[in-house]
Amino acid sequence: MTAPTEHLPPHDAPEPLSRATRRRAIVACLLGNLFELFDFGVYGYFAVQIGKAVFPSVDPVVSVLASFATYGVGFLMRPVGAMVLGSYGDRHGRKAALALTITLMALATGLTGMVPSYAAIGLWAPVLLVVCRLLQGFSTGGEWGGATTFLVEHAPPGRRGLYGSLQQVSTGLAQILSIGSALLLNSVLSTPDLEAWGWRLPFLVGFILAPIGYYLRSRVEESPEYVANRKLGGPPVAPLRTALTTHRNAVLLCFGMTMVWTVSSYVFTTFMPTFAAQSLGIAPVVALSAVICGSIVNVLVAPLSGLALDRWGGRGPLLLSASGFAVLSIPLFTLLATEPTFASLVCVAVISGVLYGIYNGSAPTVLSLLFPTSVRYTALSVGYNGAVMIFGGFAPFVSTFLVRATGSTIAPSFYVTACAILSLAVLAWPRRRDAYAY
Questions:
Q1: CB contact at 8 A, 106 and 338
Q2: At the N or C end, where does the chain have fewer CB atoms within 10 A?
Q3: Model-level pTM greater than 0.70?
């Protein structure tokens, strides 16, 4: 499988931006990305409470499964959002598309926080929740590829790796805010209050924050690389068709490289607090406190990985991280199963946070540079979100199901290990020397 690449000369074509202009654009993009991904991801940390409110059942595991299934439903729309919003971003500009994504997310998030309980409106409650998650998924499908493209195309010479890693720093901060909101509410509210109304608060706060992101994004400069490309050839006629035909192999490469990336995130970060509480008997506050340590480590490691990419290029960080997950996932879950303590959970969270941060810091730039400017937003979004939908979005559901079906608390590690091996195979597949051109 080869992956043809086509790049502008190293920032010779675009007109240079002033440092202040570039800073405003980067800050606006990162804040908008943080608000939007906080809105999308916070659901996973209130799965138990949402399950009891919207999917009541005698068996609490069934409620959690239903809640995680609805969490995964949002990912079904991510490829659709990637195709629609990605094409819009390649044709009309990254700035316009990113402003649209955050508007849609604000609407869906606010409505999620206002969905009545099952006791109030019966089956309409899960129906409305699913609709909200679908709209959130559609919006997020255009967010990741757009934000990554925008940052990489704004980067000064020799700093694309660092700027690409900032997208994942913003995503990591969104995770920390999500976990932090769950930790705070679990600490200050009683269980009945949290289940009755407390879980709604983060969604309502996200609804308020998202318009701030829209305001910032609507007032920044367009990507200079996109502007230069438009002057050379005009907008692409059919970016989705071009991405899936001319750049099909690169899209598949992006898909394969994303598998371990997305599964490791949703198993070790999103799923872990619920797993620790439900399967290991660890108090929710203790579990959330441990997992947030891993998220902080991820945020610290990611820019270092981006700087390493700027210095040395290549795919070394991706191979190192994927190999680490392939080798260590089963031992890490075994450690938790044999010693379900706060110390063990912190150890697992920190090790996975290091491995995840290494991948986070390099992957955004490596993947974005597989594609030419004219279809980068579309192709990057489709390849990434396709893998996130299939492997990542339902990872908490798959992990919960595996534990219940096998009776083994280390079963989720098999899923991570399998995806790590598949991504390693993609990374190691022989291809042209320019397949990882940087």
A1: no
A2: N
A3: yes
SS (H, E, C) the chain: CCCCCCCCCCCCCCCCCCHHHHHHHHHHHHHHHHHHHHHHHHHHHHHHHHHHHHCCCCCHHHHHHHHHHHHHHHHHCHHHHHHHHHHHHHHHCHHHHHHHHHHHHHHHHHHHHCCCCHHHHCCHHHHHHHHHHHHHHHHHHHHHHHHHHHHHHHCCCCCHHHHHHHHHHHHHHHHHHHHHHHHHHHHHCCHHHHHHCHHHHHHHHHHHHHHHHHHHHCCCCCCHHHHHHHHHHCCCCCHHHHHHHCCHHHHHHHHHHHHHHHHHHHHHHHHHHHHHHHHCCCCHHHHHHHHHHHHHHHHHHHHHHHHHHHHHCCCHHHHHHHHHHHHHHHHHHHHHHHCCCHHHHHHHHHHHHHHHHHHHHHHHHHHHCCCCHHHHHHHHHHHHHHHHHHHHCCHHHHHHHHHHHHCCCCHHHHHHHHHHHHHHHHHHCCCCHHHHCC
Share of the chain above pLDDT 70, in %: 92
Q: Which two tokens stand for residue 202?
A: 């983060």
Q: How confident is the model at residue 17 (pLDDT cuts 50, 70, 90)?
A: low
Q: Which residues, at least 6 apart from 419, have a Cβ–Cβ distance to it below 8 Å?
A: 259, 260, 263, 264, 391
- Per-residue pLDDT for 361 more than 50? yes
Q: What is the pLDDT of residues 121-176, one digit of tens each?
A: 888 888 888 888 889 889 989 988 898 999 999 888 889 999 999 989 998 898 88
pLDDT, residue 206, reads 72
Please report how many Cα atoms fall inside a 13 Å half-sphere around the Cα of residue 134, on the Cβ side: 7
Count of all residues that appear for the chain in the document? 438
What distance in Å separates the CA atoms of residue 298 and residue 58, rounded to the nearest whole number? 38
The Cα 130–Cα 138 span in angstroms is 12
Statement: residue 4 has pLDDT above 80? no
Q: Is the pLDDT reported for residue 184 higher than 80? A: yes
d(C-alpha 38, C-alpha 287), whole Å:
19
**Under a CB-based contact definition with an 8 Å cutoff, are residues 54 and 125 in contact?**
yes
Give domain limits for the chain. Answer: 19-436
**What is the fold of 19-436?**
Growth Hormone; Chain: A; (1.20.1250)
Q: What values do phi and psi take at 13, rounded to 5?
A: -75, -50
